[in-house]
Fold this sequence. Notes:
By secondary structure, this protein is of the alpha/beta class.
Amino acid sequence: xxxxxxxxxxxxxxxxxxxxxxxxxxxxxxxxxxxxxxxxxxxxxxxxxxxxxxxxxxxxxxxxxxxxxxxxxxxxxxxxxxxxxxxxxxxxxxxxxxxxxxxxxxxxxxxxxxxxxxxxxxxxxxxxxxxxxxxxxxxxxxxxxxxxxxxxxxxxxxxxxxxxxxxxxxxxxxxxxxxxxxxxxxxxxxxxxxxxxxxxxxxxxxxxxxxxxxxxxxxxxxxxxxxxxxxxxxxxxxxxxxxxxxxxxxxxxxxxxxxxxxxxxxxxxxxxxxxxxxxxxx
Length: 282
């Protein structure tokens, strides 16, 4: 019998029957990168690779209790928080992770795969609560340029002329250490039209700007793979900029080797490196 030697990561997210998004996807990424995943389920999805038909939220007390029981038993090396569309979940999770300020926290809260918000949920209020309670605790906030704009609407008028960098700096000023804006155009030249860029901001400006070949897809769960990979590399002790670099390389490979499970979108292959190794041996 051996004690656990792989880093433990606790992820908060939905349970997806396909495993394309949420905690099942995260656990696969963690395993592929030498970590052990622990999970807290925030909602149950009815979904396939083409669409999400419905979801059932877990009671906020259950979300908190799942995490507390695990954390009283095991020491985690990092947290990942996935898609959030329930205000009480945000407050419950924020309270839990506030007790572990030394563990890296990767925040990837936007879920394009989730159903529309209920009529009782105010989108701006949801984003405001997210910005106030979780963003200040995050080591890294990961979001697209469109999602950054939506979040920025909670503190400014979009006609003010602020840039993407200004908005990222505002979030960093709140306490978030880094902001990674994904999927932006790489440039305007003909040579750059087939590329996409990810830009990492730290206090004071751009830390790195990486361009990648745009793969056509369509994919489901690509952003979640990236954030889970960053969490895994950080749990293994890497600095955030290096973790982002390696996670981007891993994610590109997962998309390049994506699989079609059914009639919908392609699912990233989290174990593509294992397949590549087997091919080389063959």
